[in-house]
Amino acid sequence: MNPLRHVRRFALPLALALPATAAHALQIHGVAVPETMPLGTHQLVLNGAGTRYFLVFKVYVAELYLPQRTDSASAALSMPGPKMLRLVMLRDVSGQELGTKLTHDIQANVSDREFAGMIGGLARMGQLFAANKELHSGDTIELDDTPGTGMTVSIDGKGTGAPYTEPGFFDNMLRVWLGDHPAAQRLKQALLGDAKASD
């Protein structure tokens, strides 16, 4: 049997199978993390992804998508264009507890003036998480920021109401993960592209 012919026989099926797996940049605790994500007419690239822990418990996998990659927190926060943050839950969590923790972490990373400008939106978000009494393992929360539109929130692909249009709302929220006092320093490093910090 011609060995080259034997190789060709299996090469084509293998080549056809590759794109299905290459679409994901990595796997973190069973969560497939895509290399790119669409937002409107834009295709955003994965900047980094990592795990949020509380004590020893895995809470969620966070994924940050930007117009272009950067390893600088300040550059990510000030970068113009659409942005996206996805949280994939790794355990069941009270929606109200998650909303309260996010608000606390925002307040730790923005000025009093910036926080005052977010109060209306944070009140809406608090109601949203309170209405979702429990977020389950596998649920996905997506925060999408589109210039001229504002930030929208979806849970498992379902929209949750009008955009948050307060100036800088998304970037101020992003400071929970990328600010000077992040929720977790290791997760901050992971979102800025440090693959060693991803798990």
How would you sum up this structure, described in words?
With 199 residues, this protein is of the alpha+beta class. The protein has a single domain, classed as Chalcone isomerase (3-Layer(bba) Sandwich). Helix content is 38%, strand content 31%. The protein has 6 helices and 11 strands. It has helices spanning 3-22, 73-78, 95-107, 112-131, 169-178, 185-191, and strands at 24-28, 31-34, 36-39, 42-54, 57-66, 83-89, 93-94, 134-135, 140-146, 150-155, 158-159. The strands form 3 sheets. The chain has a 7-stranded antiparallel β-sheet with strand order 3-4-5-6-9-10-11. A two-stranded antiparallel sheet has the order 1-2. It has a two-stranded antiparallel sheet with strand order 7-8. The longest helix has 20 residues, at 3-22. The protein starts with a helix and ends in an 8-residue tail after the last helix.
Helix content: 25-40%
Largest sheet: 7 strands, antiparallel
> In the CATH scheme, what's the topology name?
Chalcone isomerase
Quaternary organization? single chain
Radius of gyration: 19 Å
Number of domains: 1
Shape, principal axes of CA atoms: globular
Structural class: alpha+beta
- Please work out how many helical segments DSSP would assign: 6
Mean pLDDT: 88
End-to-end span in angstroms? Answer: 47 Å
Run of helices and strands: HEEEEEHEEHHEEEEHH
The CATH level-2 architecture is identified as 3-Layer(bba) Sandwich
